[in-house]
Amino acid sequence: MLTLKLTQMAHGGPAMGRYQGKVLFVPYALPGETVTVEIEASKKRWARARLLEVVEPSPDRVTPSCPHFGPNACGGCQWQHIRYSAQLAHKTDVVRNQLARLAGLTDVPVHPTRAVGEPWNYRNHVQLHASPGGLGYVTADSRRVEPIDECPIMHPLVADLFDELDIEIEDLERLSLRAGVNTGQQMVIFETTNDEPFELMVDRPVSCVLMLSDGTPVTLVGCAHLFEQVAGHRYRVSAGSFFQVNTAGAEALVDTVADYLSLRPYETLLDLYCGVGLFSLAMAGHVGQVIAVEVHPSAVDDAHFNVEVAGLDNAHVVEGDVAKVLAALDEPVHAVIADPPRNGCGPNVIEGIVSLRPARLVYVACDPAILARDAKALAAAGYRLVEVQPLDLFPQTYHIESVGLFVRT
Asked: Do 344 and 370 contact (CB within 8 A), yes or no?
């Protein structure tokens, strides 16, 4: 057991300090606090410690709103103990520190993290796991499921579904609740261990889908998709397709990306990892052509549908691995949007983008460390990171969405 002063917030959520020349990471603590901790894991240069007592609390420490919050409970939120204005400031610092430490970019303007929507009741999609005690979230240590009675970051449409759940399904493994915040549509997605369809009786307009182990959706009630409205555009989102969990955040992303791109009517825009077409639909009216690339079949089907229903004859959806599609592309591209999954673009995709010599690249990143890694590679290939705008799509957590503008030098 030891006592130390914490100095800053680290990537991944813990506060950090130093003890005998070693960096100590302390989850559920805050910079400026004096704490008593116990070492849980120790390496040559760093250690992870468990918070035992806050000796001198930070003025930014607040009482968590959720009874399930904490190191031995739900792992969904990590920062409910931090005043929201301080959460935003810490996220800005984390992005700046990652760019400086991992990419050597110390002079790139990182704007203050922008709040979008409400800091509570924002999630339009949650995934709950079955346990003997009921449905809940995986704990912070990933060792068990914490059954929950409430979740203050669920959107009310999702919370209503959760409150009304009364199911006893044999072999239930996971259950997802989704909602179209701006359409009012709701969906329940079941995952079981035996892939056997079952009958459900519901007395309200809620779609219920069984997701088979191979990713195939089986409609039990209603249909296997819902619709969402973002920035004046309507999107079909199927049970197996990704969509931003913060609808207000999705609109903020569209606005920020559009501002950074400064598109012109004669340009060709390449939308990589396009999903259901969030950016493609929003940008198509400002360019000559949009080429949207996506590998996941469910999202590809949704993107085709959304483009067709929107009546866009200048938007084309290409199904395939992004790196392979880039390697085969032989037409001029003026601007690129890249919104990759958590592991980022990586060297093959970056090489493919650079070979096309677009004037501008807007990179949407859900991990500042990955943004820094790919920014370093892009800088080496002749692309300068002009600025970064972090957006808080995940309040009460350490997760950060960032939008970066790169230009060819």
From this structure: yes
Comparing C-alpha atoms, which of 377, 378, 372 is closest to residue 400? 372
Distance CA 396, CA 392 (A): 9
What H or E segment, with its residue span, contains residue 351?
helix 346-356
Chain centroid, CA 31 distance in Å? 25
273 torsion bin: left (phi>0), alpha (psi -120 to 50), beta (else): left
How much is the pLDDT for 202? 76
* Predicted TM-score of the model (pTM): 0.96
User: Distance between CA atoms of 374 and 94, rounded to whole angstroms?
Assistant: 16
What's the average model confidence in pLDDT over 267-289?
98
The answer to whether residue 345 is catalytic is no
DSSP letter at 112? P
Partners of 208 in beta bridges:
188, 221
Q: Is the pLDDT of residue 201 over 80?
A: no
Beta carbons within 8 Å of 308's beta carbon, 6+ residues apart: none
Average pLDDT, stretch 237-256?
A: 98
Q: Which fold has domain 92-117+242-408?
A: Rossmann fold (3.40.50)
Tens-place pLDDT, residues 55-80? 999 999 999 999 999 998 999 999 99
pLDDT exceeding 90 applies to what percent of the chain?
Answer: 92
| Matching fold, domains 2-61 and 92-117+242-408 | no
Q: What is the crossing angle of helices 368-380 and 84-103, to 10°? A: 30
Using only C-alpha atoms, the chain has a radius of gyration, in whole angstroms, of 22
Long-range pairs for 55-60: beta carbons < 8 A, 24 or more residues apart: 55/3, 57/30, 57/33, 58/30, 58/31, 58/32, 58/33, 58/86, 59/32, 60/30, 60/32, 60/85, 60/86
Active-site option among 66, 77, 208, 366: 366
Reported as a single tens digit per residue, the pLDDT across 152-164 is 999 999 999 999 9
Q: Does domain 2-61 have CATH number 2.40.50.140?
A: yes
The CA distance from 285 to 208, in Å, is: 35
Residue 169 has what pLDDT? 81
What per-residue confidence (pLDDT) applies to 233?
Answer: 98
Average pLDDT, the chain: 96
The ranges assigned to domains in the chain are: 2-61, 92-117+242-408, 125-228
Number of helices and strands (H, E) in the chain? 8, 22
Q: For the CA atoms of 375, 378, 379, 384, what is the dihedral angle to 10 degrees?
A: -80
